[in-house]
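thought: user wants a sequence for this fold. calling inverse folding tool.
action: design(structure=
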Protein backbone atom coordinates (compact mmCIF):
# COMPACT_ATOMS: atom_id res chain seq x y z
CA UNK A 1 0.00 0.00 0.00
CA UNK A 2 1.44 3.37 -1.01
CA UNK A 3 0.85 6.38 1.24
CA UNK A 4 1.39 9.78 -0.39
CA UNK A 5 3.80 11.95 1.61
CA UNK A 6 4.91 15.49 0.80
CA UNK A 7 7.38 17.88 2.35
CA UNK A 8 10.71 19.51 1.67
CA UNK A 9 14.43 18.95 2.18
CA UNK A 10 16.75 21.60 3.62
CA UNK A 11 20.39 21.45 2.59
CA UNK A 12 23.04 22.50 5.15
CA UNK A 13 26.67 23.07 4.27
CA UNK A 14 28.42 23.60 7.62
CA UNK A 15 31.70 25.49 7.81
CA UNK A 16 33.45 22.44 9.34
CA UNK A 17 33.18 20.58 6.03
CA UNK A 18 30.23 18.37 6.97
CA UNK A 19 27.23 18.26 4.70
CA UNK A 20 23.71 17.30 5.76
CA UNK A 21 20.05 17.38 4.77
CA UNK A 22 16.93 17.55 6.92
CA UNK A 23 13.61 16.19 5.70
CA UNK A 24 10.49 18.05 6.85
CA UNK A 25 7.25 16.15 6.19
CA UNK A 26 4.27 18.50 5.81
CA UNK A 27 1.53 16.16 4.61
CA UNK A 28 0.83 12.46 5.25
CA UNK A 29 -1.87 10.74 3.19
CA UNK A 30 -3.66 14.03 2.55
CA UNK A 31 -3.50 15.22 6.17
CA UNK A 32 -1.23 17.91 7.64
CA UNK A 33 1.31 16.64 10.18
CA UNK A 34 2.39 17.88 13.58
CA UNK A 35 5.06 17.24 16.23
CA UNK A 36 5.31 17.53 20.04
CA UNK A 37 8.07 18.80 22.32
CA UNK A 38 9.14 16.49 25.15
CA UNK A 39 11.64 16.75 28.00
CA UNK A 40 12.39 15.30 31.39
CA UNK A 41 14.87 13.81 33.83
CA UNK A 42 15.83 10.15 34.07
CA UNK A 43 15.74 8.01 37.18
CA UNK A 44 18.62 8.31 39.68
CA UNK A 45 20.94 5.34 39.15
CA UNK A 46 24.62 4.70 39.95
CA UNK A 47 24.81 8.08 41.73
CA UNK A 48 23.44 10.36 39.00
CA UNK A 49 20.62 11.22 36.62
CA UNK A 50 20.41 12.76 33.13
CA UNK A 51 18.22 15.38 31.46
CA UNK A 52 16.78 15.04 27.95
CA UNK A 53 14.73 17.11 25.50
CA UNK A 54 13.59 16.87 21.92
CA UNK A 55 10.67 16.81 19.53
CA UNK A 56 8.77 13.80 18.28
CA UNK A 57 8.76 12.66 14.68
CA UNK A 58 5.82 14.01 12.63
CA UNK A 59 2.46 12.23 12.58
CA UNK A 60 -0.83 12.99 10.79
CA UNK A 61 -3.28 15.42 12.39
CA UNK A 62 -6.97 14.71 12.88
CA UNK A 63 -6.73 10.92 13.27
CA UNK A 64 -5.69 8.61 16.10
CA UNK A 65 -1.91 8.22 15.96
CA UNK A 66 1.36 7.76 17.85
CA UNK A 67 4.80 9.37 17.37
CA UNK A 68 8.33 8.02 17.25
CA UNK A 69 10.85 9.90 19.39
CA UNK A 70 14.59 9.88 19.96
CA UNK A 71 17.02 12.06 21.95
CA UNK A 72 20.42 12.00 23.58
CA UNK A 73 20.59 12.62 27.31
CA UNK A 74 22.79 15.24 28.92
CA UNK A 75 26.45 14.34 29.48
CA UNK A 76 26.72 13.52 33.19
CA UNK A 77 29.16 11.38 35.16
CA UNK A 78 31.36 11.12 32.07
CA UNK A 79 28.80 9.68 29.66
CA UNK A 80 25.39 10.00 27.99
CA UNK A 81 22.56 7.67 26.95
CA UNK A 82 20.11 7.45 24.05
CA UNK A 83 16.35 7.35 24.55
CA UNK A 84 14.00 6.24 21.80
CA UNK A 85 10.58 4.73 21.44
CA UNK A 86 6.96 5.24 20.46
CA UNK A 87 4.49 7.40 22.36
CA UNK A 88 1.09 6.20 23.48
CA UNK A 89 -2.06 7.30 21.62
CA UNK A 90 -3.26 10.92 21.56
CA UNK A 91 -5.01 12.22 24.70
CA UNK A 92 -7.27 15.25 24.04
CA UNK A 93 -6.79 18.46 26.01
CA UNK A 94 -9.91 20.39 27.16
CA UNK A 95 -8.71 23.61 25.49
CA UNK A 96 -7.90 21.84 22.22
CA UNK A 97 -4.98 19.88 20.91
CA UNK A 98 -3.61 16.76 22.57
CA UNK A 99 -0.58 15.18 24.21
CA UNK A 100 0.97 11.71 24.46
CA UNK A 101 2.50 9.66 27.27
CA UNK A 102 5.94 8.15 26.72
CA UNK A 103 8.22 5.96 28.82
CA UNK A 104 11.14 3.61 28.49
CA UNK A 105 14.67 2.69 29.46
CA UNK A 106 17.81 4.36 28.12
CA UNK A 107 20.62 2.56 26.35
CA UNK A 108 23.33 1.07 28.58
CA UNK A 109 26.45 3.19 29.10
CA UNK A 110 28.90 4.44 31.76
CA UNK A 111 32.07 3.29 33.57
CA UNK A 112 29.71 1.06 35.57
CA UNK A 113 27.39 -0.11 32.76
CA UNK A 114 23.82 0.87 33.60
CA UNK A 115 20.57 2.25 32.17
CA UNK A 116 18.00 4.75 33.46
CA UNK A 117 14.21 4.75 33.33
CA UNK A 118 12.41 7.80 31.93
CA UNK A 119 8.86 8.86 31.18
CA UNK A 120 6.40 11.71 31.02
CA UNK A 121 3.98 13.39 28.69
CA UNK A 122 4.67 15.47 25.62
CA UNK A 123 3.68 19.07 25.26
CA UNK A 124 0.73 20.06 23.09
CA UNK A 125 0.98 19.61 19.33
CA UNK A 126 2.93 22.08 17.19
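)
observation: tool returned 126 residues.
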Amino acid sequence: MDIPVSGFVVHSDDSDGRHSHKLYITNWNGRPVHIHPFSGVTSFDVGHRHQYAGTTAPAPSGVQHVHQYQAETSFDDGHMHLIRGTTGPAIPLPEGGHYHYFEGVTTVNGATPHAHEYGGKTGNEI
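thought: summarizing for user.
answer: Here is the designed sequence. Residues 33-121 form one domain.
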